[in-house]
Amino acid sequence: MAERYFDVRRQTGFTTVAMICFFLLYLPIATLVVYAFNDNDSVAIWKGFSLRWFYSAWHNGQVIDASIRSFQIATVAAILATIAATMAALATTRTKPYRGLTVKYAFINQPLMVPEIVTAVALLVFFSRVKVWTGYSGLGYLIAAHTAFCIPFAYLPIRARLEGMDLSLETAAADLYANRWNAFRYVTLPLLWPGILAGLMLAFVISLDDVVITEFVKSGGQDTLPTYMLGQLRRIVTPEINAISTVFLLLSIAIVTIFFFVSRKRA
Amino acid sequence: MASAAEVAESREREDVRRRWLLSAPALLIIFLAGTGPLLIVLVYSFLTPGDYGDVKWQFSTDAWVGVLFERDIFDDTLSLASAHMAIFWRSALLSLATTILTLIFGFPTAYFIATRPESRREVWLFLITIPFWTNLLIRTFAMKEVLRNEGLVNSLLQFLRITDQPIQFMFTDFAVLMGMTYVYLPLMVLPLYASMEKIDFRLVEAGYDLYATRFQVLRRILLPLVKPGVIAGSILVFIPSLGAYVTPRVMGGGTNLMIGNLIELQFGQGRNWPLGASLSITLMAIVMVALLVYVRYAGREGGQHG
Question: How far apart are CA B9 and CA B2, in angstroms?
Answer without folding.
Answer: 11
